[in-house]
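Box 3.1 A note on notation
Throughout this textbook, protein chains are presented in two layers. The first layer is the amino acid sequence; the second is a token string describing backbone geometry. Keep the layers aligned when reading.
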Amino acid sequence: RRRAGGVRGRAREDTRSRGRASGHGGVTTMTEETMMDAAAPPKEEPVKEKKRKAGMKKKESDIDYEALEKQIAGIKSNAAGSSAEKLLSETLEELLALEKTYRLQADLKATSMCGVAVVQACFEAKQWKLLNEHVVLISKRRAQLKQAVGATVRETIKYLDHTPDEETKVELIRTLTSVTEGKIYLELERARLTRKLAAILESRGKLDEAAECLQEVAVETFGAMAKTEKIDFILEQVRLCLKKEDFIRAFILVKKVTPRAFSEKRLAASSFSAAQAGD
């Protein structure tokens, strides 16, 4: 009996062990994997992939730039020979409405074309006060594009040599420097405008104001400016400091230029206007 009971007990244990083995290897494992998959959060797509897909879904720009250019030319031609009031009420309003349309569509080229057309209309009508106002207006419009502001400022800079008098030129330069202030993408234009303003102030005998104006621009931090132009600008700052006998400031400024900068071959052919002016 004891022997028979032991055999039956061992058989039951073998059966249980086989059942546990088969259950662990098959049903139980599958159940755990299924539960883990169900509990795991859904995998999120990378941000770059989302942006790429969003860009693919976005409709391509179907703007006909040639037609837009003709439309702008037509608006400007309608105001040719008209009074300043009509230019302000019709031409500029239509151009600004066009600029708003393309600005909200985030179209770089079309918005830039409209901004340039606005300042061109003011220049062609010889309305310098309107020109100053609209340069500031375009730069401060809601959701304005950097490329549009840059194109408008560069277009306006071309008109500095066509101003009727020096006072108008100074006013336009001050407007442009205020617009470009704090904008890294226009740091080169701001430095050149500041230098022109300093030259005018020096010619008027305002030496202290000219030197202070020029020293506000730290050209050594500008990445868009060429090395030769940086050195030329710093030498101009030094020259004005020496002219007003501010030797401490001049010593500080001259430390920004290392002697080896003058030994480079590409600097040998460059002419420094500051040194020429000092002679």
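The chain has a mean pLDDT of 78. Residues 2-25 form the longest helix (24 residues).
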